[in-house]
Amino acid sequence: MTVMRYPALFALSVLILTACSELQTYSRTELAPVIYGGQGVNYWLAELHGTRTMTPEQLQQTLDAWEQEFSTDTTVTNRVRLALLLAVGNEPVRDRKRARKLLDAVDPDLLKENEQEIVVILKQFLDQQSANKQKINILWEQVTEQSRRIEELEQQQKALTTIEQNIQQREKPAGTENGN
Q1: Are 86 and 98 in contact (CB under 8 A)?
Q2: How far is CA 83 from CA 60, 122, 162, in A?
Q3: Whole-structure pTM over 0.70, yes or no?
Q4: Which of 26, 82, 153, 173 has a Cα-to-Cα distance from 9 of 20 to 30 A?
């Protein structure tokens, strides 16, 4: 009976390995594959993915086109697509405050569950970025204040060094006269 198990296990292993060979590997050095087509989240992510290799000029043109589409058709799809570009798009078109305003105006009742989730995730991301920016600003103010204080202390040190040198120069002639 154990002799019969080995060929069966071997055959099952071959079947599993054959099925797994169809899976594609994903390396972290490249962008994640995006499912094109459809609507909602897939559509928004595919549109955003298409902007990743654009030049700054192309990005600006895309932003202008998406803004135009949104101004003529204020559907949730156009709103979230534009907010996504403004929130996580490349630097030339990024405007996180404006993205947050667009997302705040989204009516969750008009979204499917997965679409609501991406809006929530985007809002959380924008909140975290805002908090990080505030922390950076506070740290920058502290560094600036410390730099100003260091500069003051260096100036005081130079003034004290100058005073000390003047005192030493006054004492030297007096010391040489006493030694004669």
Answers
A1: yes
A2: 14, 9, 61
A3: no
A4: 26
